[in-house]
Design goal:
Two copies of one chain form a homodimer.
Chain A (H helix, E strand, L loop, with lengths): L20 E3 L3 E4 L19 E6 L15 E7 L9 E2 L8 E2 L12 E12 L2 E5 L7 E8 L2 H4 L14 H8 L9
Chain lengths: 181, 181
């Protein structure tokens, strides 16, 4: 029997959904990043890195009015992620964390999200900046970044709050721009 | 032949990826919302609405340390979305927009994202607030909201900037809390 519900919370306890969810890539992300170890781990560590979204032509109409947004979310398949793990050691520190408390690619569902700067559109192609995605990554969705929906204040960011900005920047860029190859 | 590349941009033009991407739900989202027409369209229009993430027990270890984050992104399948369309009329106004310039569920890949408040964890269950998701929605991924990664300043939000806050709030809550049923 389920325990007592908290006030205002839903009480339903039907079976868990088990049906697989299948998505068809709608395009591809182009970038200068070809090696995982040289790819910045987040857009904020890839400032100014240019790339492109190449949408399949049949979806071009869905981009109408996107030019008005300065940032867009890209959702994509981490198609070269290592095998999923529940505990990972993040790049920014040396402690094992639950994968859902990190942005590591080796997740049970290898779904990636990057918040990139939108420079301009040419038909079905979006020119973007701050790209932390491997070249050739399959694109699943695009959503606009909307100020009133997507920013939060007074945020606690867990273990990330204990990583200072300098360390984060140094480790977060990985090999990118360091001359290492 | 491809046109001239912009400086610093990638030049590769291999074939588009066409392989489907399949995800297995890792749990389910519980909420008081059972009717689409009464479900707020965004977490900011669902302030204080309580719900739960019920993770399948085998993924519980992946939640380690998530308690430190005040907000988390939920990624889920819009399993009751209408047929995909490339042009949609958003709830907040009366003009047709490209679906990728909106957050409408009827997208080519029906992938949803909600940024919700994390109240506490009990084993494989997360107690959350600001829930704009239909009860029983299949969960695909959880990522922490990280201040240094996820907020942007000086943002243009396209057509959304022309919708005033009062109109947005009124339309964005839809039937929720209005007594309509």
């Amino acid at each position: 029997m389920a325990g007592r519900a908290h006030p205002g919370e839903p009480t339903g306890r039907e079976a868990m959904p088990v049906k697989d969810v299948t998505y068809k890539p709608i395009g591809v992300i182009r970038s200068p990043h070809t090696k995982q170890e040289d790819t910045p781990i987040q857009p904020v560590f890839a400032r100014g890195v240019a790339g492109r979204v190449e949408l399949l032509p049949e979806y071009e109409e869905g981009l109408r009015d996107i030019e008005g947004f300065s940032y867009i979310y890209l959702f994509y398949a981490f198609d070269r992620a290592k095998e999923a793990r529940l505990l990972v050691v993040p790049y920014l520190e040396d402690t094992e964390r639950g994968v859902f408390a990190t942005r590591a690619p080796c997740r049970p569902n290898a779904l990636g999200m990057s918040l990139v700067r939108l420079l301009r559109r040419e038909g079905a192609v979006l020119h973007i900046e701050d790209v932390d995605v491997l070249d050739g990554t399959p694109l699943l969705d695009i959503k606009p970044y909307i100020g009133r929906y997507d920013s939060r204040e007074d945020v606690r960011s867990g273990w990330q709050d204990d990583v200072d900005d300098t360390t984060a920047r140094e480790r977060g860029r990985r090999g990118f721009g360091s001359g290492k190859s």
